[in-house]
């Protein structure tokens, strides 16, 4: 997984969409620091059970 991924759009807006789609996510689950995309994906995958590729496509630009 590339560490040069960039989140699409505004992160606060994206967090709201993720919480709506996956109601079990908390603010702690969605804590994001630049350069920690892989950690974020791992956390989300573990919490939601969604495929890493699906989450990556949803969150990141190609």
UniProtKB/TrEMBL annotation:
Pfam families with a match to the protein in the record: CsbD (PF05532)
Annotated InterPro entries: CsbD, UPF0337_stress_rsp, YjbJ_sf
Domain CsbD-like, chain residue ranges per copy: 6-56
SUPFAM superfamilies for the chain: Hypothetical protein YjbJ
The organism's place on the tree of life at top rank: Bacteria
Family the UniProt entry places it in: Belongs to the UPF0337 (CsbD) family.
Protein name per UniProt: CsbD family protein
């Amino acid at each position: 997984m590339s560490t040069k991924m960039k989140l699409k759009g505004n992160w606060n807006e994206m967090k709201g969409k993720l919480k709506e789609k996956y109601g079990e996510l908390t603010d702690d689950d969605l804590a994001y620091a630049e350069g920690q995309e892989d950690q974020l994906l791992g956390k989300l995958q573990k919490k939601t059970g969604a495929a890493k590729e699906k989450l990556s496509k949803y969150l990141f630009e190609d």
